[in-house]
Amino acid sequence: TTTLAKVAARAVLHEGRRVGLLTLDTYRLGAVPQLASLAEILGVPLRVADRPGEVAAALGALGDRDLVFVDTAGRNPRDPGFLDLTATLAAVEADEVHLVLPATMRPADARQAAQRFVELGATHLALTKLDETGAVREALRLAAALGLPLVWLGTGQEVPEALAPAHGAGLGGRAPGRRAR
Predict the structure, then answer these.
(1) pLDDT tens for residues 16-43?
(2) Residue 159 to residue 103: CA distance in whole angstroms
(3) Which residues does residue 165 pair with via DSSP β-bridges, in sequence order?
(4) CA–CA–CA angle 163, 164, 170 (5° rounding)
(5) The pTM is what?
(6) Which residues contact 65 (CB under 8 A, 6 or more apart)?
(7) In 3D, which of 110, 102, 109, 75 has the Cα closest to residue 89?
(8) What domains can you pick out in the chain, each with its CATH number?
């Protein structure tokens, strides 16, 4: 949710985009109020969908927006509720699905989680908490091993300042270690 807030704020404040927010996270306590505060600050509409059948109407209400950012609850891929997320994301029909992983996560766990989310349709990767680890190089190696384009690097809680595009870090929008073809 914090990464989504940073990306949405950048789109509104730095790019002048007309943004809408949709949250599917009615699972985590405080998630909806957190995004409602962001929506109010940015002056953008927020819609909430509890189940797959509500997604189309929520997206329809945001149809006049340049970009619609969809927030989901952080889920354990081993959790039975993970299948609920699968159905809800399928209803969104997103152009891009960004997997957000903390750089502090154990590489073996991150690889396992990423594989499940790639099966779900993840298309891009954001690494967060780079400010909380001394193992930045290992986190970047992990990003390369996952095979998803690395697009965002998170370095703190400040919205939107503590987020940088990965290409701004000299990575060219590619997973580190990959060559352009």
Answers:
(1) 999 999 998 877 778 788 899 999 999 9
(2) 18
(3) 152
(4) 155
(5) 0.80
(6) 18, 19, 20, 44, 45
(7) 75
(8) 1-84 (3.40.50.300), 96-181 (3.40.50.300)
